Amino acid sequence: MTFLKHPGCIYVGGEWQPTEQREAVINPADESVLIEAPVGSAAQVEAAIAAARHAFDYSDWPRLPMTQRQAAMTRFLDAIDARKDEIIAMIVAEAGATQMLAEFMQYGIPMKHARRTVEVASRPAITPLPLEFTPNAQGGTTLGTGVVSREPVGVVAAISPYNFPFFLNIGKVVPALVVGCTVVLKPSPYTPMEALILGEIADEAGLPKGVFSVVTGDVEAGQLLTTDPRVDLIHFTGSDKVGSLIQAQSAPTLKRNVMELGGKSALIVRADADLQQAAAMGLMGFVMHCGQGCALTTRHLVHNSVRPQFVEMLKGMLAHVKIGNPADPSVSYGPLIREVARKRTEEYVAIAQDEGAALVAGGKRPAGLDKGFFFEPTLFDNVRNDSRLAQEEVFGPIGAVIGFDDDDEAITKANASDFGLSGAIYSGDPGKAFEMALRIRTGGVSINGGAGTMQSDAPFGGIKRSGYGREYGEEGLNEFTYQKVISFHAA
Fold first, then answer.
1. What's this model's pTM, rounded to 2 decimal places?
2. CATH of the structural domain 9-261+468-489, one choice from 3.40.50.11060, 3.30.750.200, 1.10.1040.50, 3.40.605.10
3. 100-114 confidence digits (pLDDT tens)
4. Which active-site residues does the annotation give?
């Protein structure tokens, strides 16, 4: 299958440029080479930054009426939807997502968010301040007022990871562009196609040249984006370790950063919970996308009175997980992205066993799958909350069950983490669950399954080592703007 129209090129300032270097993109399910992807040079990355800077400073894009940018971004999203089947196939092949996950979570939800983002951009860019009486130097009183103007922050470097690449590319590019910023998008080397296709779609939608570029490259390319003074904002999703490096690299130029980083989110199961529903949520917490999700609930804090039942339910559910190549629509669980991810998962299995945790299920490579980076979904019980398995982000398919005896202990253990991105509570008493949710130090908590899917108007992000800043909704849109106050006499 041919995935890209310009397979050896990157998208710089609205033009397709060939690269001298290539790097194989591998299908993680069968290790076949999908494409020899372009690897941008330092000069090409700098050219993309220059194009974005010029487009922001001198083109009409930042100064267009909002309705015109909304129309342009609607054309952009329409052009994406016209290639939906092609993009979903790309997500399955490149990211290793199952068919259902690719269509629903990796394509459907980000497109829903994106459409809503374009709508939300209609909120007033200029809002009035109240009239105010202020004493003046002449001994009189000045009647003054003013307005607050929200304006695009400038050139955005959007850096995305490999786990939900299309989702996160759209979540960065659409809000940045619709408010009037210009964007240089750099994807993970593992998943460049889901970014490069957006360059093709920008052409199809007629976006002005220079407002959007897609570059690829190694650590050097990323460092150029994080250190160049022409870049105003870095919007990064990835690990906390890389996030801290980016923050340090951007510090000399005092860039704004939005960081959506790692997680070790807690699922709290009270004694009065519906255990069937809680176990189903717990299963998704480490089985969805092979555990490669920052907001997944991989720590299961379960009341000791129901913990044995919860563990047995989870074990039974794991027996029905179908492992295999996600190109097969009946498969519910695919591969990790690369061999390095599988080895890291194996290392954490050994760490957990050394720490005294009880292996309930999984813990090894599945039989009969000689190709691909597969690893069985793995469950440990009797995990200590201060253990490495409970405290460190594996980014692989391992769930850790930790007991507690009362609500205060559950909250203390949930908060005893360097991360704070997400969380969940299952309880037959929603009021008590809500009180507990208010005490948990994290960016989001769902009660008894939450709203079903991610809400488009809900801000998403974390605290502590899970990062700062918010995505989606009006708060996420505003991350790409700054506030200017213009004051004047009222008369």
1. 0.96
2. 3.40.605.10
3. 999 999 999 999 999
4. 260, 294
